[in-house]
Each structure stands twice: as C-alpha cells, then as structure tokens.
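Data availability (excerpt). The following record was deposited with the supplementary files.
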Amino acid sequence: MAHLGLSKLVKQVEIKSDGDVFHELFRFKPHHISKMSPTNVQNVDLHEGDWGTIGSVIIWNYTHDGKEKVAKERIEAIDEVKKSVTFNVIEGDLLELYKIFIFTVHVDTHGENNLVTWTVEYEKLNEDVEDPTLMLDICIAVTKDIETHHLNN
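Predicted structure:
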C-alpha cells in the first residue's frame, strides 16, 4: 500500500468578537460550545486531565453530513502567544477514513479585526478518501455560531 503522506487544509474566517475570548473558549471551555452551536456540536466532555491543559483528552459529539459522530481528541499543544490550540484525534469516526487527523485553531487579533484560522493536518487511509473539506466547513460554521452568540450577549 502506498504511503500517502500528511496533507494540510487551511480555512480562515474573520470575526468581530474578541479573539482572546475565542481562544479561551477553545482552550478552557470547549464544553460551552454545544450551547452556542447545537446543530454542529451536541456535547463536549472531559475524558481525562483538566480543561485547558496539554495531554488532556476531550470527547466531542458532533454532526457531520447529517450523521451523529464522535471524536476523542488529545490536546497536543497550546500557544498563548499565537493563541492556538492543537487537538489530535486519537479515537472516533474520523479515524475510519484517516490515519492521522489533527486540528489547530489559531486566532490572530489585530484591534477590531480578528482572524480565526483552522488548520487540519491529515493522512488518508487510502486514495479513495475525500479531503476533509466538509469537516473544515463545520469548524467555520461553529466559529460563526460562537461569534453570533458572543455578539448577541
């Protein structure tokens, strides 16, 4: 079997809400996301460790392509300067298609303009597997739902 190697997809969305708040949410309070984006994320549970710490494991219940899915992710890296959190998927539905699946959410703050960048690094199990563009679209939708929640409160 051919080794397909690591691929990367990046998608950005501009937000008007506070970038620091956004970073804090993904680092320390991802369990609040299901209240802000219930159509995309139904539940987020801490499986081991502490919220916001490297090595902690979080279980996400989410909807992908109309189906309920699960992802168990370990926080691999946190960068307070770059306002980024990296999640490595260690169990769940995504690993039925991908050997490696890593999400990084990163917030650039420049005064009023804040840019949220989602990066997905992945390795497909085979050539027939699609690039995870729909997964990135969900991340952008969740980002917009979080922003709407913050702007309305």
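Summary of structural features: Strands lie at 7-15, 41-48, 57-64, 67-79, 84-92, 98-110, 113-124.
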